[in-house]
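Input (structure):
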C-alpha cells in the first residue's frame, strides 16, 4: 500500500452540507422556512472569507447568526436562542453523500487508518458522524476548533500528523475544497485527492480528481 492512512474532510465529502444546513435551519426557525436562502447566503459568504484567512472558523460561528438575525429584522436578543437551536439541531444532521459509508467500510477492510479532518466544532462533528453511522470507521477525528488551527493553515495538518504519529508521505488527504483540503494539505507535504461532484467541471490539471467517492478505491 502506498499510503498507511487517509485524512478525510466531512462536509460535502462524507455528509451533504446543504440538506444538513437546511434541516438545522428549519429546526431553529420553523416559522420562516423562506429565510433559509438569506441564511445560507450569509453563512456561505462568511465561510468562504474564512477559507481565505479573513476570519477564523470560531469567529464565523458567532458572526453568521448575528448577521442573519439583524438582516431579517429580529431583535438582538434573538441571536443567542437561534444560535443555540441551530447548533443543537446541526449536531444531529447526517445526510450522507452517496457511497460514503460503503467507501469507508472498504477502506477499513483494506487496512487503512482513517482520520476525519474538518473545520468546525469537534463535539458537533463527532455527533454527526455518530448519527450517520460513520464514527466507528475513524481512529480519530481532527476538528479545527479542537486542533487550534483551521484548514488550510499548514499547522492544522502538522498537528494532525503529530497526533497520528504519521509522516506526510504516508497520508492521502481527500476533500471537496481546493483551498482548504487540497492546497492546504499539499503545503504540509501530503498527497491529495480532490473530490469534485460537479460532473460538468473540467478536470483540474495536476490534481488527482474523483467525481464519486468509490473512485477513491481505484486510485489507491
Ligand atoms: Mg468540505
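Output (sequence):
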Amino acid at each position: 500500500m502506498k499510503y498507511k492512512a487517509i485524512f478525510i474532510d466531512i462536509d460535502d465529502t462524507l455528509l451533504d452540507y446543504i440538506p444538513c444546513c437546511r434541516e438545522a435551519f428549519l429546526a431553529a426557525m420553523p416559522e420562516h422556512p423562506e429565510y433559509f436562502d438569506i441564511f445560507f447566503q450569509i453563512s456561505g459568504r462568511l465561510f468562504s472569507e474564512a477559507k481565505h484567512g479573513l476570519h477564523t472558523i470560531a469567529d464565523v460561528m458567532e458572526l453568521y447568526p448575528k448577521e442573519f438575525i439583524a438582516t431579517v429584522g429580529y431583535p438582538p436578543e434573538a441571536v443567542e436562542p437561534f444560535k443555540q437551536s441551530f447548533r443543537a439541531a446541526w449536531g444531529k444532521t447526517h445526510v450522507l453523500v452517496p457511497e460514503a459509508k460503503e467507501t469507508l467500510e472498504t477502506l477499513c477492510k483494506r487496512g487503512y487508518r482513517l482520520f476525519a479532518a474538518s473545520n468546525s466544532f469537534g463535539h458537533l462533528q463527532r455527533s454527526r458522524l455518530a448519527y450517520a453511522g460513520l464514527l466507528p470507521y475513524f481512529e480519530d477525528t481532527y476538528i479545527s476548533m479542537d486542533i487550534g488551527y483551521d484548514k488550510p493553515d499548514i499547522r492544522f495538518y502538522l498537528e494532525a500528523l503529530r497526533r497520528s504519529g504519521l509522516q506526510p508521505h504516508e497520508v492521502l488527504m481527500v476533500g471537496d475544497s481546493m483551498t482548504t483540503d487540497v492546497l492546504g494539505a499539499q503545503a504540509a507535504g501530503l498527497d491529495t485527492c480532490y473530490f469534485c461532484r460537479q460532473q460538468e467541471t473540467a478536470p483540474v490539471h495536476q490534481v488527482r480528481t474523483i467525481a464519486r467517492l468509490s473512485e477513491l478505491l481505484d486510485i489507491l
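Notes: The first helix runs from residue 17 to 28. Residues 35 and 72 are 8 Å apart (CA to CA).
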